[in-house]
Amino acid sequence: MKFLRRISTRRLVTLCVATAGVVAGAGALAIAATGGGPKPPPESLPVAVHDALTAPQVDGVSGRLQFTDHLISNADVQGGTPLLSGASGRFWASSDGHLRLELQADAAGEGGTGDTQILSDGHNVSLFDSQSNTVYEATLPKHQSDGTDQHPDGPPSLDQVTKAIDRLMNHALVSGAEPSDVAGQPTYTVRVEPKENGGLVGGVELAWDAAHGTPLRAAVYAKGDSSPVLELTATDISYGPVDSSVFDLSPPSDAKVVDLNPAGGGSTAAGDSAPVTGLDQVQGQVSFPVAAPDTLAGQQRNEVRLIQSDKDKGALVTYGQGLGGLAVLERAAQPNSSNGADQSQVTLPTVSIDGIQGQELATPLGTMVRFQRNGVEYTVVGSVPAATAEAAARDLH
What we know:
outer membrane lipoprotein receptor (LolB), chain A, 13-stranded mixed sheet, 21 strands, globular
């Protein structure tokens, strides 16, 4: 597709690592290799990636998919959405960057109900959750280049691809291009594992169509687990033009809208507002005292940044390096909320933070702790064990 043909090598490497996320993962639509299907001939990773970038452009792709989620136990979380309980659905993508995913909770799921729609035009992304009647919106970051990896006249050369992979290998263990078959298509699969500061993440896998160059599978693994924790799979796939009306969807008029962009805008292009950073600068913009100790759970503070959700301003404080770092979201507690609970129907396990009852979600890939104190709601998130996240929450003063 056009996107893959024009993507820079740096962005391709980033895509390989980030695809398993909800937004980035939206482009990786596939089924796990089942064996017995057609497989491409062995190739080195640089050659396989270069062939994908120079493959003939396709007008579009569509099909059916299956999303598997072993991240959260329904015994702990009640009232899950399709993104939490697992789902099946459909997908469409066009050559001009438009994408739509439609997920319905599995009938066999334990407590999952409703459906989820994910739409993107290549610049913005929105996620509508019918169960909570909420739309989450974000602007995709614009690529900032140092001038070394842009290819305005076409895809990168084999030498440029090789150098990009070499740079990635300075920070991660990268497998070769393993021949595989995905949804009946010959594919190559690559696995990337962090060398350090990976937190609880064991690695990610990405497979792409050997003939078309289209990403066809994404999976995320926890440390010490040979089965994926998250996997987005397509049970059927076809190539061909996609009618533009497929992407003309609107949420209900009474849906709540949550803006996930940092305050100051989601882009850093010239003319856009610069993000507000620094403890003193952020403190001057919010209505509550920002808790930002120099160290948290043994990790050094990196940044304090102003963020905005709906009309409320908050602070995002980050600690440590890599996936094993910590992020603390702070905002004024809502008058109609209690102990960090929101208005959704999802109920999380409780945890005590210095005698205050909060909520905790511990998963194979990380932990989230949320609680309120003195009119401020704190959310601690990191790819760390529950004990580390709880210790960080207790250190917030």
